[in-house]
Specification:
Growth Hormone, Chain: A, 17 helices, 3% strand, globular, 433 residues, mainly alpha
């Protein structure tokens, strides 16, 4: 099946909505990933003070997670395609929940880096495996919203976790929150394993009409015998542009996820609790636009029947907003204006997320777990490099302007790359029936 720019989609007629229950379970999964991932950010100043870490050391601790996360992306995506999301997600959620809790046992920079690295190894398969689930459970006209709302859940979770950590650090210290957050993942893994099925056909609650809607992808054609050619994948200009775009995105996102509490504390003179509140605002803005971006793309697809236009216009708008307001935020004199500008920058950046994750579904089909893992590997290579570069720039220039200017340049590069990303050019080979 080869989608053209004009993609015919009809209104849904399904009588059941089990696919939405799958979606909301994945929203909860994404929320847990970010809860466990960002809780260290608010704790970082406290940890640094206890152990005497400088910014480069803190940057290395942040990067250790993204190193493990990026290195295991492709193997995890491949495994998700091989064994299915049910077993894959159950196992890896239990793994990373254990290492979230073990973060509380760290006694040095090295021990914390090792634990965070192994934690990243566990989380590596989360988004590719969920994307693989969507490839079986969702039709093409619902994928942009699905990828948007799941990432909204992660950003909202990050926002609320930052808010909660301010009070938890004061009440419990920095170690106990890791134990509390890690236990939530264990509960999710149990629900997922006993309720979810890898194929809608195998779920007793799915009606024939919902199954027909899921399987009728809107093009009037179905495929069989799909095959992923690594040679075709690695020679695809489309895939390379997607990966480089997501490298830029990953680099920039981590600045907001990891460094905002430190930035608001050092540059804007905010205390621990106030910093946690203001750090939550940009992440909350991002949680809104994540869903908005995916929803807009799906609406545009239904209205215009043009898959290329419906994906690109939203992504271009988001990166343009990020470029403008990131620079305005760091140059703003007023703390309130700085927070507002940073919130708009994150909102623009996150407007692109659901669209970016819809592309692997568009071009990867039954191998969307593998394709999304390749994209996410590049994104998290950017995320691995970012804390180290930011830490070095801060040590070298004693100013936050260079890190944010570099981030805005990378957003502009991502904006340019979207002119070459084409959701109608699959990287899988398939025959028609």
């Amino acid at each position: 099946m080869n989608l053209s720019a004009k993609t015919v989609v009809d209104a849904p007629t399904a009588k059941t909505s089990v696919r939405y229950k799958v979606l909301w379970l994945c929203v909860a999964l994404y929320a847990i990933t970010y809860m466990d991932r960002v809780c260290i950010n608010m704790a970082a100043p406290v940890i640094a003070k206890e152990f005497g870490f400088d910014k480069v050391t803190i940057g290395l601790i942040f990067s250790s997670f993204y190193l493990g996360y990026s290195l295991l992306q492709v193997p995890a995506g491949w495994l998700a395609d091989r064994i299915g999301p049910r077993r894959m997600l159950t196992g890896i959620v239990l793994w990373w929940s254990a290492f979230t809790m073990l973060s509380a046992a760290a006694w040095s920079a090295t021990s914390l880096m090792v634990v965070r690295f192994l934690f990243g190894v566990g989380e590596a398969g989360a988004f590719p495996a969920a994307t693989r689930a969507f490839s079986r459970w969702l039709p093409v006209s619902e994928r942009g919203f699905a990828q948007g709302v799941t990432h909204s859940g992660s950003r909202l979770s990050g926002s609320l976790t930052n808010l909660a950590m301010g009070g938890l650090l004061v009440a419990l210290g920095w170690r106990m929150p890791f134990v509390l957050f890690g236990s939530i993942g264990v509960l999710w893994a149990g629900v997922w394993f006993f309720w979810y099925r890898d194929r809608p056909e195998d779920h007793s609650s799915v009606s024939s009409s919902e199954l027909a809607w899921i399987r009728g992808t809107g093009s009037g054609q179905q495929a069989k015998g799909q095959k992923l050619s690594w040679r075709r994948l690695l020679r695809s200009t489309n895939m390379w542009c997607l990966c480089l775009m997501y490298f830029c995105y990953g680099y920039v996102l981590v600045i907001f996820l990891s460094w905002l509490p430190t930035y608001f504390s050092e540059v804007r003179g905010m205390g621990l609790v106030k910093s946690s509140v203001y750090t939550a605002i940009p992440l909350f803005a991002g949680s809104v636009t994540n869903s908005l971006g995916g929803w807009l793309s799906d609406r545009l697809l239904l209205r215009t029947q043009n898959l290329i236009y419906s994906r690109r216009i939203v992504a271009h708008t988001g990166f343009a907003i990020a470029v403008i307001f990131m620079v305005l935020g760091v140059l703003a004199e007023s703390p309130i204006m700085a927070v507002a500008s940073m919130a708009l920058a994150v909102a623009g950046l996150e407007l692109t997320t659901g669209i970016s994750w819809a592309i692997p579904l568009d071009i990867g089909r039954d191998y969307s777990g593998t394709v999304s893992s390749v994209m996410n590997m590049f994104g998290n290579t950017g995320s691995t490099v970012s804390p180290i570069v930011v830490g070095f720039l801060l040590q070298r220039y004693h100013s936050w302007t260079p890190p944010f200017v570099l981030a805005s340049i990378l957003c502009f590069v991502a904006w340019l790359l979207w002119f070459k990303i084409d959701p109608t050019q699959p990287v899988v080979e398939e025959s028609r029936i």
